[in-house]
Specification:
This protein is an alpha+beta fold and 98 residues long. 33% of the residues lie in helices and 34% in strands. The chain has a single domain (4-93), classed as Trna Endonuclease, Chain: A, domain 1. The chain has helices at 15-26, 63-66, 69-84; strands at 4-5, 30-37, 40-48, 53-61, 89-93. A hairpin with a 2-residue loop joins strand 2 (30-37) and strand 3 (40-48). It comes from human gut metagenome.
Amino acid sequence: DSEINAETDNEFDSDFEIEVCDKLRERGYEVHNQIGVSGYRIDLGIYDSKESKYILGIECDGAAYHGSKSARERDIHRQRYLESRGWNIIRICIYFTI
């Protein structure tokens, strides 16, 4: 099992993360940001309080992500690691408007 550090008052990494988080909360989801998992950080996590667990991890890919091949490769490795630990991870690209 992965160690989860889910403090809910962490700083956002970008305005894009804030926008995605706000839209999800407007739709009634409980969303935590910058969740620490086994030495990694997940941008946003949707938490199911009835099940007492995260049901989805969301990575918000900004403009810098698309300009860096090494960032993409690193994030793909991280995503595979987290998925191997039971996380469901999706990526949202800044180029798609909310």
